[in-house]
């Protein structure tokens, strides 16, 4: 889904009120979403809200929660909400955009799990 994601407006580290740019791949329309961190409490939670008005989005916000479970295990929960635009097309856009976000979010979370599983295996091998 993403071609690039980076901090903007002179921010060099993620922090409360820092802004970021998320640019979609060209075949997803290359939509650019600018967000601001509205909650930033590492390692437990981070949340962003959209600050620009890209095509098809009236609103967008997301949060990621991390919880330690036990014995080096943790749980990550990613939540997002959006409102499509234009208003008169929401009946069509919401189901399509929802399906797309569900698919992409699951894919990214599986990749995150694979990364940390591999990393944990490498750390225990040493």
Describe the model.
The chain has 126 residues and is of the alpha+beta class. 29% of the residues lie in helices and 44% in strands. It has one helix at residues 90-125; strands spanning 2-8, 19-24, 32-41, 45-50, 57-70, 73-84. Strands 1-2-3-4-5-6 form a six-stranded antiparallel sheet. The relative contact order is 0.11.
Order of secondary-structure elements: EEEEEEH
How many β-strand stretches? Answer: 6
What form results from the Cα inertia axes? globular
Structural class: alpha+beta
Q: Identify low-pLDDT runs.
A: none
The percentage helix is 25-40%
Rg over CA atoms, rounded to whole Å, is 16 Å
Count of helices? Answer: 1
Q: DSSP strand (E) fraction?
A: 35-45%
User: Span between N and C termini?
Assistant: 35 Å
- List the strand order in the largest sheet: 1-2-3-4-5-6
Overall pLDDT level: 92
Largest sheet: 6 strands, antiparallel
Keyphrases for this structure?
six-stranded antiparallel beta sheet, 6 strands, 126 residues, 44% strand, globular
Structural topology:
Blueprint: E1 2-8, E2 19-24, E3 32-41, E4 45-50, E5 57-70, E6 73-84, H1 90-125
Antiparallel strand pairs: 1-2, 2-3, 3-4, 4-5, 5-6
Summarize the structure.
Helices cover 29% and strands 44% of the residues.
